[in-house]
Amino acid sequence: MHLRIPLPAAGLVTVSALLLTGCFAPSEDSAKPGSGDDRRIRLAMMQPPRSGLSPLSDDAFKLSRWSTAETLVTLDPLGDARPGLATRWTRTSDRTWEFTVREGVTFHDGSELTAEVAAHSLSRAATASPKPRILDGVELTAEARGGKVVVTTDETDPLVPQRLSSPQLSILAKSAYGKDGRIDPVGAGSGPYALVKVNGTTTAALDRYDGYWGKKARAAGIDVSFVPDGAARAAAIRSGEADIAESVPVSQASLLAPETVTEVPMPRTNTLYLNTASGPFEDAGLRAAARAAIKPAELVKGVYEGRADRAGGLLGPALPWAAEGRRELTGRTKAADPGGTTITLATFSDRAELPEVASVLQQQLQQAGFKVKQVVREYAHIEEDALAGKFDAFILSRATVLDSGDPVAYLRSDFTCDGSFNLARLCDKSVDEAVRKASATPAGDARRAAVLAAEAAVLRTDAAIPMLHERVIQGDATSLTGSAKDPRERLLVTSDTRFK
Fold it and tell me: A Gene Ontology MF term for this entry (predicted)?
């Protein structure tokens, strides 16, 4: 049984204080007394920018969580499309949609939102190399026509509005796009907060944008610090150094005052990806042996202290229809004898629990007859090797509906032959066909059933072994109210976030 040995409380406070040194540089405004509207929100984020805050990368979700970049469409809690920078849309043919752009919107550089500007942003995303993940397997064109944005896809796509809700398809001012292909979001968004400064991978600053078309921000601005160390983020809430801390580690949650902790089930799955293209796990029997060796209950209880849900599939309790519609899986490969087979198990340290998960899995796999080597690095230093197939197994905490509010984009990206994030290097005809069918099915019960059929096709390959579904733990100072608790991790600081 795996047990955590806690640090003494006094020692933990000392360590956290040392980790915090130099991480936060509160502005003069944030320390001012007075009304909440005059104060700045101090935000501790887990991961620093990976791609210079390019909206075409996962950095787009930082721009969204800061309420600085916006999309044509937004999603409601059920995942249905709602107006954003577009006020309405019409499907004019199987492959063509027309979006009416909201009037009276200005970007932070003073320029106006027009159909031409919106089409320009979408076209840059559609022609980028590599493409944003949301456009995996999708050929899309956008043009301004008759004052509207006309979006055309090469194949029928019933989820175009949901797709355009992805932060990776944010609409920025033309000034953001350089001739060298780089995209600089500073001063180019349209949200209630204007990004005014980025200091590499350490800090960023945003100011309230008084020209915002919608509800004005209540706080004067946001001071962002990138703090990869989870203990330091939690300590920032305890010490008052931060007003919001995202992704508080499970091990730290119990050390915070209960009124500062929010726990939200989220569509995120902790999964073991097995390299099916090279190495020991080309053998389906050995993949089945790995699946049989893993005991998720030990991870939930020992590593996550009960603050997670044991996986019944790739899709978790944040999507209740998945559990309701899932059927018992049949046709699985029988486990082979590992016979001392050596494997390399890798993960990253940015999420505090994952190295501990790796240690528990190492024990479980060794007990089953594997010999296991471990590799743990920061994500920025391991992603390239993971995608290149340099590890036999990789532990990833993966959001399953991050982009469009629909799991198909995740299934295509992670498990199809041409998926851009295919850590398992899986190329299986039955999986590709099941994902293609789900992608072509209109929204509703039929699409959900097709998604579950695709999930089953993936699970039968044992290329991915879902272990548990995480809950997001967020820390908020008691002096603050109105921060978003968003399972999709798109929203955090909003116009309503303010000091009491």
Answer: peptide transmembrane transporter activity
